[in-house]
Amino acid sequence: MNRAWLCLLICLALSCGPSQSASQDRATNQTAASPLLKQSQNTFIQWVLSLLPQRPGSSDSENATLATLSSSSMMPDAASTTSTTTPAPSSSTTTTRRATTPAPPTLNPPRNCSDCVCGIANIQKRIVGGQETEVHQYPWVAMLLYGGRFYCAASLLNDQFLLTASHCVYGFRKERISVRLLEHDRKMSHMQKIDRKVAEVITHPKYNARNYDNDIAIIKLDEPVEFNEVLHPVCMPTPGRSFKGENGIVTGWGALKVGGPTSDTLQEVQVPILSQDECRKSRYGNKITDNMLCGGYDEGGKDSCQGDSGGPLHIVASGTREHQIAGVVSWGEGCAKAGYPGVYARVNRYGTWIKNLTKQACLCQQETKKIK
């Protein structure tokens, strides 16, 4: 609102216009009709306000002035003790017509989070080499589809968010990405499979598409999933742990050999996790950053491969059944090639980032903490 309009409105509120002497001549009559006059003034001001353009850039002080004018016109004369049963016209037009910050959405009724445990495989068995998993053995492993076709994997962290690799979503249209849970054999139809659209994709702000540093991303589902006896998420990794010397379990529908077709069924393979120094002594050298984790054999033979990207590298916490997601399948030279271990995004480097972005979701407890 410009100053000219504001002055006019002030003038209207104060009934300016007639000369001072003329006002004095009518003082007695105005005092007697004061409540009616105030009512008329307010009605007229409300009508004028309704005609004014609603400028999105108008200042808070202008709106405060309008609200003051409207409310002051409704106040009874200080000298009058006469009450009225006619309610004053509402001033909601001026006091609520403009909101600079929308109120946060309220869940009504609030979403109830079920009592659940993360990281427990549905079937416990020993891995010997690469092989097909049991159906729904790792229920948190999700398939990513682009335009309806499988291309990457992800891991369910809670009822709304998944973890994947940035290179699986960077530059992709989220409208064309969908998530499928409880899939096992891509050629068979399973009644239990769950499909969701993607509401949001968050790549790490420091992701480097040239060297795959910080190759980690978060996917938010358009609708939460419900946990049950089959479906539950993976556990987050222990902060600060290197995982050196531990056995990692990689799962995915990726190719079984370099250049080969992707697998129809979910596969798993076990690889030893290397220290940073050991990995930098491989043929990768200084390409390995502190945000990366390596897993594999010097002679090769077992590895993740094309199509496994974004999927999990698990470790099972000592003395527990708890599967933690230590890494996200990122990159590598070939597949299972001697001197070139698989490279993964080191998840426990991003605990705070993940927690801050997923704090509104329903979480499952770790079994060890639940027992305590």
Automatic annotation (TrEMBL):
Which E.C. number(s) belong to this protein? 3.4.21.-
Which Gene3D superfamilies would you find in this protein's record? Trypsin-like serine proteases
Q: Which GO terms describe its molecular function?
A: serine-type endopeptidase activity
Q: Where is the signal peptide?
A: 1-21
Positions with biased composition (Low complexity): 78-101
> What membrane topology is given?
Single-pass type II membrane protein
What Pfam families does the entry give? Trypsin (PF00089)
- Key words, A-Z: Disulfide bond, Hydrolase, Protease, Secreted, Serine protease, Signal, Signal-anchor, Transmembrane
What compartments host this protein? Answer: Membrane; Secreted
Q: What GO CC annotations are associated with the protein?
A: extracellular space; membrane
* Every Peptidase S1 domain range: 127-359
Name of this protein: LD47230p
